[in-house]
């Protein structure tokens, strides 16, 4: 961890009141920790907005494994992108439905494309990309 630096922030009273409400809601110990998290969240968004930046994330999908060809199609896509998909967890949710969580890492533009492909496969009922960071550029 790098050295902590203190600095003052000027903010409209109403905006500060909103921040304090969120701090209570999320259980932050103090304003500093809340503001650090906000800055990190923004930095992660920026990483994902830069095409060549290396990012990490998860793609979660649910699908009915009885749909003909669907499991094969998803498996094929995962093998095609094995260099980006670093882990897969498959859960047999109930009789018909499976949930898969794939941890992905790679260039932002490619990670976004891959998530779109996986979520867009016909028969995938719901999918979501969770955007996070490799952590290298976050303190
Ligand atoms: Ni399953």
CATH class bucket of the largest domain? Alpha Beta
Helical proportion?
40-55%
Task: Classify the beta-strand content into a percent band.
Answer: 25-35%
Distance between the termini: 6 Å
Overall shape: it is: elongated
Q: Might you state the CATH topology name of the largest domain?
A: Alpha-Beta Plaits
Radius of gyration: 19 Å
What is the mean pLDDT?
95
Helical segment tally?
4
Bound small molecules, deduplicated: nickel (II) ion
Order of helices and strands, N to C? Answer: HHEHEEHE
Low-confidence parts: none
How does the major sheet shape up? 4 strands, antiparallel
Query: Which class do the helix and strand fractions yield?
Result: alpha+beta
The CATH homology group name of the largest domain? ACT-like. Chain A, domain 2
Number of strands: 4
Q: Order of strands across the widest beta sheet?
A: 2-3-1-4
């Amino acid at each position: 961890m790098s050295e902590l630096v203190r600095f003052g922030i000027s903010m409209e009273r109403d905006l500060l009141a909103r921040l304090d409400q969120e701090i209570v809601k999320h259980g932050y110990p103090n304003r500093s920790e809340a503001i650090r998290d906000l800055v990190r969240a923004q930095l992660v968004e920026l990483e994902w907005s830069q095409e060549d930046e290396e990012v990490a994330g998860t793609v979660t999908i649910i699908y009915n494994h009885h749909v003909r060809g669907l499991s094969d199609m998803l498996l094929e896509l995962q093998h095609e992108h094995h260099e980006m998909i670093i882990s897969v967890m498959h859960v047999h949710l109930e009789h018909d439905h499976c949930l898969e969580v794939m941890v992905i890492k790679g260039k932002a533009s490619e990670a976004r494309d891959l998530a779109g492909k996986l979520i867009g496969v016909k028969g995938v009922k719901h999918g979501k990309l969770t955007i996070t960071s490799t952590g290298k550029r976050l303190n």
